[in-house]
Amino acid sequence: MLLTIRILIQPVGYVSPDEINALTEKLKEKFPFNTKIFPVIWPLQPPYSSYNIKRMQYDAKKINGFIAKKRADFLGKKGSYVLGIAGFDGYYNGLRFVFGLASVDLKVATIYTPRLKEQKEKYYERLGKEGTHELGHLFGLPHCENKHCVMSFSNSIAEVDNKGEDFCPECNAKLARIFH
Ligand SMILES: [Zn+2]
Ligand SMILES: [Zn+2]
Fold first, then answer.
1. Which residues are CB-contacts of 72 (< 8 A; sequence separation ≥ 6)?
2. What is the pTM of this model?
């Protein structure tokens, strides 16, 4: 029997249905195993406790914890993977900002949209890359040295634009071994 991995797409804050649809489409057939993607249309409101008023940014780790708790309320313990899409800026630890953060233990990752919207025509492509990248972490992949691979680390919009939208052959083979 072939395993199917369920992925919930959960908007947080202001995210439009077009953005959710674009992300859902981009994630189809990206992985070397079966996935079923469930887009949730209604956004969650981020809790005040995840907002850092001095930085005017949200704590990405707290956002993942919040989403994990909501999933437990909604689906019980046996939840699927969740990819959050947040319409506000996020940070983590010493980083000035993050495009996304994966919490492997929670099976939750979130991508942050405002910084991906620079020169808007590439926005949906970037959503797909960062969504694929964070799910790659959730499924157990580390960063990849191959600059064309979607798992290469990006800390600027130029780096996001320069990498490809797919896994390199090595990362693809690793993923295929994880869920075979
Ligand atoms: Zn990463
Ligand atoms: Zn790779």
1. 79
2. 0.95
